[in-house]
Design a protein that fits this description.
single chain; about 400 residues; D-Amino Acid Oxidase, Chain A, domain 2; 8-stranded mixed β-sheet; globular; binds arabino-flavin-adenine dinucleotide; binds P-hydroxybenzoic acid; FAD binding; oxidoreductase
């Protein structure tokens, strides 16, 4: 088999890249390790920056999003019984869209089916060969039979645990990592959201987040121990703990109900440089991870896709490789700013086991500054809605 671009990974990065390249007449094959249903069963991000919303429109997959999403002009932050809003629209004239990553992925799969582009599910043992030469190829096993695809380029969109990043030799790659000493326990419940915007809560018992997917589907998180297991947390224990971390007026309004999904995610900051090796380009979680506090994971994957799509189109249309040659540097410049925002909001809102009394005073001062200082709020708003591509 031969194609122009092999995309390893059928998550949002791979699917968005595949759709945008198809619309420019560039042929791709997506190799996905799991089944489509497995990929669609993952509950992850919920906030789309304007850049990703624009790309969904460019990809022709924004119709359902436009019908079903929420437009949020700001977000709320609480600390003990205080609650304040950061009004993005008033401060910088921008907003974010609330639309689950699962729906983004579903819309992209449907669009890929509609154009008849090739996606191979349950592709096992994917391996990248000769990425540093001019005739790279990918091998994999399908139904027990060894397969090979020759191509011009490979996009490594296979997430943090994929094989693409590990294809780049250790002496070429530099990994930067910070592992946070806690996780997020998240639940999905068929209950009305407690507030009309998100609430990021700093409390003496730890962080909590009140989010949503639609008017009848809510997404909540509480900071938990890394050693916690989902089975350690009954629904009742989760709701009790969430209420204790929210201002009383909010807790009193909280509508609880059975969880329809419950999972624990570890928190880490991670960046691997460079994001290119020969004809292999890393994209999304394959190259970088952020703690979900700043809602940047899916959105930094989107900006990678933007830069890589631009580079590939320029190569195939104008035989100009400048966009590909500058891909890694351009993508990393934006990623590091998103890493900093995610790291700083995580430090501001979570309780750390080794925090001293002084550290807690600094954390409180930072939140109060964000509460009362318009400059601090403007910086927060600019980063939350997404820096320009
Ligand atoms: P993904 O990991 O989504 O997709 C990679 C795909 O590659 C997967 O389908 C995988 O099956 C496939 N794959 C892996 N190895 C392969 C191989 N060897 N061969 C073929 N295919 C392979 N971001 C937010 O903004 N907010 C959140 O609240 C949030 N919560 C998260 C919770 C969890 C548990 C996780 C893991 C991530 C969360 N994220 C969140 C970040 C998340 O949304 C990612 O940023 C987003 O999924 C990135 O998309 P991809 O780069 O496509 O990677
Ligand atoms: C979510 O709705 O899953 C969500 C929203 C904002 C975040 C993280 C997760 O910062």
């Amino acid at each position: 088999m031969r194609t122009q671009v092999v995309i390893v990974g059928g998550g949002p990065s791979g699917l968005l890249l595949g759709q945008l390249l198809h619309l420019k007449g560039i042929e791709t094959v997506i190799l996905e390790r799991k089944t489509r249903d497995y990929v669609l069963a993952r509950i992850r991000a919920g906030i789309l920056e304007t850049g990703l919303v624009d790309m969904m429109r460019e990809a022709g997959v924004a119709e359902r999003m436009d019908k079903e999403c929420f437009i949020h002009n700001g977000t709320c932050i609480s600390y003990e019984n205080e609650l304040f809003a950061v009004d993005f629209h008033k401060l910088i004239g921008k907003n974010v869209v609330v639309y689950g990553q699962t729906e983004v992925t579903r819309d992209l799969y449907d669009a890929r089916d509609a154009v008849g582009a090739k996606t191979i599910f349950e592709a096992e043992d994917v391996q990248i060969h000769d990425a540093d030469r001019d005739a790279p190829y990918v091998t994999f096993t399908l139904d027990g039979a060894e397969q090979r695809i020759d191509c011009d380029f490979i996009a490594g969109c296979d997430g943090f645990h994929g094989i693409s990043r590990k294809t780049i030799p250790d002496n070429v790659r530099t990994d930067y990592e910070k592992v946070f000493p806690f996780g997020w326990l998240g639940i999905l419940s068929e209950t009305p959201p407690v507030h009309d915007e998100l609430i990021y809560a700093n409390s003496s018992r730890g962080f909590a987040l009140c989010s949503m997917r639609n008017e009848k589907l809510s997404r909540y998180y509480v900071q938990c121990e890394l050693s916690d297991k989902v089975e350690d947390w009954s629904d009742e224990a989760f709701w009790d703990e969430l209420k204790r971390r929210l201002p009383e007026a909010v807790a009193d309004k909280l509508v609880t109900g059975p969880s329809i999904e419950k999972s624990i995610a570890p928190l880490r900051s991670f960046v691997s440089e460079p994001m290119r090796w020969g004809r292999l380009f890393l994209c999304g979680d394959a190259a970088h991870i952020v703690p979900p506090t700043g809602a940047k994971g899916l959105n930094t994957a989107a900006s990678d896709v933007h830069y890589l799509k631009e580079g590939l189109v320029r190569y195939y249309k104008d035989k100009d490789s400048e966009g590909l040659d500058s891909y890694s540097e351009k993508a990393l410049a934006r990623i590091w700013k998103a890493e900093r925002f995610s790291w700083s909001t995580t430090n501001m809102l979570h309780r750390f086991p080794d925090q001293s009394a002084f550290d807690l005073k600094m954390q409180r001062a930072e939140i109060e500054s964000l509460h009362h200082n318009e400059t601090a709020q403007t910086w927060f708003a600019q980063n939350y809605v997404g820096l320009p591509y």
